[in-house]
Amino acid sequence: MSDRRAARQRTVAAALPGIGADALIVTHLPNIRWLTGFTGSAGVLVISEDHATLITDFRYETQAAAEVGGAATVLIERANLWDRLKRWFESTPPFSAVAYESHATTVRDAERLPTVVNRALVAAVELVEGFRQVKDDDEVAAIVAAAALAQESLAETIETIRPGDREIDIAARLESALRHRGSQWHPFQTIVASGPRSALPHARSSEKAIARGEFLLIDFGAQVDGYCSDITRTFAVGAPDGRQREIYEIVRQAQARAIAGLHSGLTGREGDALARDLIAARGHGPEFGHSLGHGLGLEVHEAPRLAVTAEAILPAGTVVTVEPGIYLAGWGGVRIEDDVWLTPEGGTLLSDGHTELIILDT
């Protein structure tokens, strides 16, 4: 595995003059991890042309040394990170302007930054996230591993599903399988929704028992080396009727059209339209209310977006979800989601893409 941390830091530092700064305070933990390898829950990183300094607390003294190594200078603070940051700025070369992650800074921290830094401040909105969009080979491999782990866990779980099972029990068995197979954590709360509840795009697993004649929607993910997968499958519990088959097939075709047509260089809006136009043409445009997809990496939701409002260009090397859906209130819904790596030549599935309707006929 290649160590790209120094190159990432140089890339970020090289972008600072363009926003009128010569140093950046990084507080968003996924960005700190991407730049240094540190996985702790508390830390402040300063990046400049010739500095990479991480301040964290005593809980992570051993961990930070092991994870960061020579990628940054590690300072351990036993009282207050912001006080240590202030002392650090008092002893460093005179930066003219310091950028901070305004999108990830609390009001309290923003209020005390002027006294901590005592220099001109520049708001940097998702600067590091912009570079994180493009995944290197190791990052893609981690997402592939997370997708494979998730799919194996789902295959194990669906063998156990029976009518009468509660949604929360199915979720518990799936999450247990994920952990047993090596998922570091659950990237988000597992969604298991059946019957009319499958029409809730972000339903929480409930005590409702699944029944024959219903859809069963499962949205879940795994995490490997910090990288996430995000997959949704919709099943029929017992033989589906004609309407269920029709709605499912529309969603399946929309997803297939999007995956076949996606490539870097499109705008997020153009990518979204690949699925949305087909669903609208079949009369269900209003029932597809969310975006087609989002970026995937150290965070389960990150840049870029595939959405009606997304005018940004999809960069080569980004990984996105492709998850069209149709949701009919009081009846049920279908969503099918896979993870796709984009290049100028097209999209490559990182999850299995097995989207034919599976009937849980038990």
Summarize the structure in words.
This protein is an alpha+beta fold and 362 residues long. 35% of the residues lie in helices and 23% in strands. The protein contains 10 helices and 19 strands. The protein has helices spanning 5-15, 29-36, 61-68, 81-91, 107-117, 127-132, 137-158, 167-180, 242-261, 268-281, and strands at residues 23-26, 44-48, 52-57, 73-77, 97-101, 120-124, 191-194, 214-220, 223-224, 227-228, 231-237, 293-295, 302-306, 319-322, 325-328, 332-335, 338-343, 346-349, 358-360. Strands 4-3-2-1-5-6 form a 6-stranded mixed β-sheet, with helices on both faces. A 4-stranded mixed β-sheet has the order 7-8-11-19, with helices on one face. A 3-stranded antiparallel β-sheet has the order 14-17-18, with helices on one face. A hairpin with a 2-residue loop joins strand 9 (223-224) and strand 10. Helix 9 packs antiparallel against helix 10 (268-281). It starts with a helix and ends with a strand. 43% of the residues are buried. The model has no long low-confidence stretch (mean pLDDT 96).
Q: Main β-sheet: number of strands, strand sense, barrel status?
A: 6 strands, mixed
> What pattern of helices and strands is seen along the backbone?
HEHEEHEHEHEHHHEEEEEHHEEEEEEEE
According to DSSP, the number of beta strands is 19
Note the total helix count.
Answer: 10
**Gross geometry:** elongated
Average pLDDT level: 96
**Strand adjacency order, main sheet:** 4-3-2-1-5-6
Low confidence ranges: none
Radius of gyration: 23 Å
Amount of beta strand:
15-25%
Helical content, roughly?
25-40%
Distance between the termini: 45 Å
Return the structural class: alpha+beta
